[in-house]
Specification:
Helix content: over 70%
Number of helices: 14
Oligomer: single chain
Transmembrane segments: 252-273, 304-322
Order of helices and strands: HHHHHHHHHHHHHH
Keywords: Membrane, Mitochondrion, Mitochondrion inner membrane, Repeat, Transit peptide, Transmembrane, Transmembrane helix, Transport
Catalytic activity: phosphate(in) + H(+)(in) = phosphate(out) + H(+)(out)
Protein name: Solute carrier family 25 member 3
Subcellular location: Mitochondrion inner membrane
Length: 351
């Protein structure tokens, strides 16, 4: 099965054969700077942890988040309407039916502009800063502790990155929710932004940042930590050969599968806060605690099925695009972590 789907990865728009990395350990004498600690030398376009590396990782984040979130705007719109008006939008299929009846096909694209801008900025910070903080915290811990505490490392790096990413996302998220959930308020970002500023000032754009942190930080922690450990587990228990022997398309298939698994968990963990954000940005003068109390336990789980489909697919595609960008630009891509030799000696695992 693994080999039968690997060819699908070759069709992705970032698959440029003449730019693909050479197999692990097979780089010729023209190999450029060393990659991650412990990784074989390859034909990299830049050094691991360099400014160029972080900049291109950020660019990969822009593409992965901006494109994927914009692609699922119709599903996101229905999900938001289910959360803020569950009596009218009673389910995902009913929600699409009602929306099409009221707004037509064009209505399903409402909010695409703030979605694209907001999530592109979020992706830039999320993926770019994740790489920055992962390197920073790894250096602080040291090689042995970075391996032993790698899950905590992924959690800390992703939480730190998402803190800044949500500040970048908040204004566009607020505008998007207004456009999608308030009929007659505004149809475009150009109409919504001035109206929001006139009514509430800058507060209108940032009053949802705290609920965003509540939603996005747990989501991102799960997204990165679950993905990293799932990739490690897939290569250890599922893939029939070491990563160094897998082709780049085969590696991208593993990336997609691990991304989807991580996405399902992400959706479940972050859904209650997502419900609060949707209602909060629709209503004036409400606080997150008031909205949470009013929705109750059952109310915060409305639209979960739609969100699982959306976030599972989104997360898988985001990791696929992000890893493809790394391949295209020949960035260092660390292999699954292995126990350092020094630690093996301390634990008596080597002669």
């Amino acid at each position: 099965m693994f080999s039968s789907v690997a060819h699908l990865a070759r069709a992705n728009p970032f698959n440029a054969p003449h730019l693909q990395l050479v197999h692990d350990g097979l780089a010729g004498p023209r190999s450029s700077p060393a990659g991650p600690p412990g990784a074989p030398r390859r034909q990299y376009s830049c050094e691991y942890g360099s400014m160029k590396f972080y900049a291109l990782c950020g660019f990969g984040g822009v593409l992965s988040c901006g494109l994927t979130h914009t692609a699922v705007v119709p599903l996101d719109l229905v999900k938001c309407r289910m959360q803020v008006d569950p009596q009218k939008y009673k389910g995902i299929f009913n929600g699409f039916s009602v929306t099409l009846k009221e707004d037509g096909v064009r209505g399903l694209a409402k909010g695409w502009a703030p979605t694209f801008i907001g999530y592109s900025m979020q992706g830039l910070c999320k993926f770019g800063f994740y790489e920055v903080f992962k390197v920073l915290y790894s250096n602080m811990l040291g090689e042995e502790n970075a391996y032993l505490w790698r899950t905590s490392l992924y959690l800390a790096a992703s939480a730190s990155a998402e803190f800044f990413a949500d500040i970048a996302l908040a204004p566009m998220e607020a505008a998007k929710v207004r456009i999608q959930t308030q009929p007659g308020y505004a149809n475009t970002l150009r109409d919504a932004a001035p109206k929001m500023y006139k009514e509430e000032g800058l507060k209108a754009f940032y009053k949802g940042v705290a609920p965003l942190w509540m939603r996005q930080i747990p989501y991102t922690m799960m997204k990165f930590a679950c993905f990293e450990r799932t990739v490690e587990a897939l290569y250890k228990f599922v893939v029939p050969k070491p990563r160094s022997e897998c082709s780049k398309p085969e590696q991208l298939v593993v990336t997609f599968v691990a991304g989807y698994i991580a996405g399902v968990f992400c959706a479940i963990v972050s859904h209650p806060a997502d419900s609060v954000v949707s209602v909060l940005n629709k209503e004036k003068g409400s606080s997150a605690s008031q909205v949470l109390q009013r929705l109750g336990f059952k109310g915060v789980w409305k639209g979960l099925f739609a969100r699982i489909i959306m976030i599972g697919t989104l997360t898988a595609l985001q990791w696929f695009i992000y890893d493809s960008v790394k391949v295209y630009f020949r960035l260092p891509r660390p292999p699954p972590p292995e126990m350092p030799e020094s630690l093996k000696k301390k634990l008596g695992l080597t002669q």
